Amino acid sequence: MTGQKIDGIAVANAVKERVRGTVQALQSEDITPCLATILVGENPASAIYVKNKQKACTEVGITTKDHKLPDSFSQQEMNSLIDLLNNDSTVHGILVQLPLPKQLDEFATISRISPIKDVDGLTPYNVGLLSTGRAILKPCTPSGIMEMFDYYNIDLTGKHAVIINRSNLVGRPLYNLLLEKNVTVTTCHSKTQNLKEHCQKADIVITAVGDRTKFVLTADMVKDGAIVIDVGISRQDSKLVGDADYDSIIKKASYATPVPGGVGPMTVAMLLKNTVTAASINKGFGSGS
Does residue 89 surpass a pLDDT of 90? Predict the structure, then answer.
């Protein structure tokens, strides 16, 4: 048996087409969706991520306001900038690229963003809405994974999912999104015992470790017909790799995502969707795309 590759690029392109249509509808009402990005310091990976997000915005008609700030940027200055953007009616989404330099408090910074401009879905208010099944702006990577399931018409009801991650960016929000779809969810992490046995029982395995030196999901860890979603990304011998041994797992799984070309493109696509959704909410047009 060979499973089906989940093509993140194709799913992302479908999302982008819907976003493009929403942007045009908003523009007909004299509203141009705008994303403000904040990058502090000279982290090369972060700079690339922000550049890619801005490029994707341009492709669908979303404008961007770029804020590149020095390593020495203080918490007080950050608070003032976020307050300014919160009060700017031409800005619909605010994205603070993480991680931040050590003098900046990530929780305090994210918490200061207006919930209706929180396109990463990370403010305490939106996290609370997510936990009660009422969120509109949801974290991009987890909501991108859910979009993949929808695209491939995968019925999640009653399935058992194992998530190997407990971060605020992936594992925790994904737990809530899967529960909404009537999935039985097990969260595993670095302290979990008998991880292999947990994975072997799962209908869906979602791994987001991102360090091949510490963890590799191999074919013997998943049961026949399982669905494998690989969120991990790291560099090995100058190649981008995920957590999963894709070539062997795809021969055993019913569906699996590759790295690159799997979950990665979805994260950016869902950021675009959240931005037009925020623009729609801000102007009273409902929930966007």
Answer: yes
76 flagged as catalytic: no
Classify 140-264 by CATH class: alpha beta
Q: What is the pLDDT of residue 189?
A: 96
For residue 206, give every residue at least 6 positions away whose Cβ sits within 8 Å of its Cβ, in sequence order, or none.
145, 161, 162, 163, 164, 165, 174, 228, 229, 231
Name the pLDDT band for 237 (thresholds 50, 70, 90). confident
- Residue 286 has a pLDDT of 46
Q: Which CATH number fits domain 31-115: 3.40.190.10, 3.40.1280.10, 3.20.20.70, 3.40.50.10860?
A: 3.40.50.10860
Annotated catalytic, 53? yes
Catalytic residue among 54, 118, 120, 138: 120
Q: Do domains 31-115 and 140-264 have the same CATH topology?
A: yes
Across 50-70, average pLDDT: 97
Joined together, the tokens standing for residue 136 give 């509109």
Residue owning tokens 């929780």: 107
